[in-house]
Amino acid sequence: PLEMSAKKPVPFLRQVVPVRKKVHRDPRFDDLSGEYKPEIFMKTYSFLEGIKKQEKEMVQKQLKKCRDAEQKEKLQQLLNRMTQQEQAQKKQQKLRERELSLKRQQRELAKQGKKPFFLKKSEKRKLELAEKYAELKRSGKLESFLTKKRKRNAIKDKRRLPPQKNL
């Protein structure tokens, strides 16, 4: 920086060398990064699934060997988080595949000359729920799921009721 005397008053409009400000850009919202396509992303980073599987096995082995209670608790939490992430990814993949199959059907119908029909969000949700029930029925966990759901709904209903005064 330029040295200036402290005795002289500083001019009102001082001539300063302009410094070019560095522009930070977020690749999530920037057009230069291209468009996000989950299918391409999954193909590109598919090698990570193998690495995650190895890490999960390693954590399981450590959990079996571990004697310390605190360390065991941490490893168990890590293992739970890994399994939950894996399940969420599978669920997302199923949803993506279902949407792709619906799009393919619509394209086929459009090729035949029929007018395309797009499902509403509520209809998609109903189809998803029906598929979930079918899956639970196949695995034999439907009854336990329904009892839990009934209990949850009963608790919600009790909360909504006005408080009763005991006289």
UniProtKB/TrEMBL annotation:
Q: Which residues form a coiled coil?
A: 52-139
Q: Name one GO cellular component term.
A: nucleolus
- InterPro entries (alphabetical): RRP36 (IPR009292)
What are the boundaries of the region Disordered?
Answer: 147-167
One Pfam family named in its UniProt record: RRP36
Q: Where in the cell is it found?
A: Nucleus, Nucleolus
Does Lipid metabolism count among this protein's keywords? no
Kindly state a single biological-process term from the GO annotations of this entry.
maturation of SSU-rRNA from tricistronic rRNA transcript (SSU-rRNA, 5.8S rRNA, LSU-rRNA)
Residue ranges of the TM segments: none
Primary localization: nucleus
Q: Which UniProt keywords apply?
A: Coiled coil, Nucleus, Ribonucleoprotein, Ribosome biogenesis, rRNA processing
The protein's job, in short, is:
Component of the 90S pre-ribosome involved in the maturation of rRNAs. Required for early cleavages of the pre-RNAs in the 40S ribosomal subunit maturation pathway.
- Similarity comment: family membership: Belongs to the RRP36 family.
* Subunit structure, interactors included: Associates with 90S and pre-40S pre-ribosomal particles.
Name this polypeptide is given:
rRNA biogenesis protein RRP36
Q: Which gene encodes it?
A: Rrp36
